[in-house]
Amino acid sequence: MQKEVAVMIDTLYGTVFHRLRTNKNITLQTIENATGISNSFVSRFERGRSDITLTKLMPLLKAIHVPYPEFFFEYTYGRLADPADSPAAIRAKLAAFLTPLDDNLTTGFTLRSEHYEEAIALAAKQKARFQAEPSQTNLLMLAFFRGLAHYLQTEYTTAHPAAAGAIPPDTGTPILRHYLLTVDDWGSYEITLFVMAAVLFTPAENLQLLRQGYRKSQRLGISRTFTTLQFQLLFSDFTVLLARRAWPEAQAVLTMMTERPSDDLTERNLTLFARGWLQIRQGQRTAGEKTCRQALAIFRILGADESAALWETYLTGILAEPPSQFILLNLDF
């Protein structure tokens, strides 16, 4: 007997399915004829009175001509969106909901050396969570916060020698490095984990992990749903390496972005902006600013005025004295 998998117990699934079905004027009897699943069962599912498995859900979606990524988007949208929300607010809610990491990483934690005590407190909180539920996910989050606390405390001590105290050894970053190097494939979880932790690795380690992760996540590029994820991996890490003043490694990542096969105009334009950004950081201010402004002009030609304004703001910070050290962990495409 074939085993049923992944029971859906959230009644909103049925509500979303009912809306999509009735919007297309498809009757319950038509679905029964197409799938062999009784109309009484589908009716109970729509009213939240029956659970459903993926084995049954997939043919039901096919019967109403809805691809499963669209269905799960509609579900997530229905769960999070408010009629008063702007498109930008909805995108932000979706991004936070879909981030496959700890809640603490979606609440605006700021990466500054003076926050090392906050990172230590978060590590202690995560330790208690891991002790209560010793899962791999909780272990990796504990490793992240321990590595982050060590990094921030080291940075703070370097900048304030008079406040120097004993810095405990970094017991977190080696765990993250081992996991990312040994896992067979990188999905959205591994990409997000690396992007969040990239600053913890030395530039040489960072580039090694990035190259392996990019290779191990190639299959994601086949799907339009995830086609920008690899580029976000590259661009985010590029900004980390710029902040670390790791010019050779930043140039290597820029080369990966440039050589990446893509017909996405936003990706191509952000790569152009990145080229100018690196030029500015390496002292070629005039040439770099010109390159960045070319990218801004292209955004405007494409009608992406909102993007042009956003990257104009970044450019202002990049050209400031002293320059702002942006680390962009998430790009809003």
From TrEMBL:
It comes from the Bacteria. Pfam families: HTH_3 (PF01381), Rgg_C (PF21259). Residues 19-71 form the HTH cro/C1-type domain. GO terms for molecular function: DNA binding. InterPro entries: Cro/C1-type_HTH, HTH-type_regulator_Rgg, Lambda_DNA-bd_dom_sf, Transcription_activator_Rgg_C. NCBIfam families: RGG_Cterm. This is HTH cro/C1-type domain-containing protein. It comes from Schleiferilactobacillus shenzhenensis LY-73.
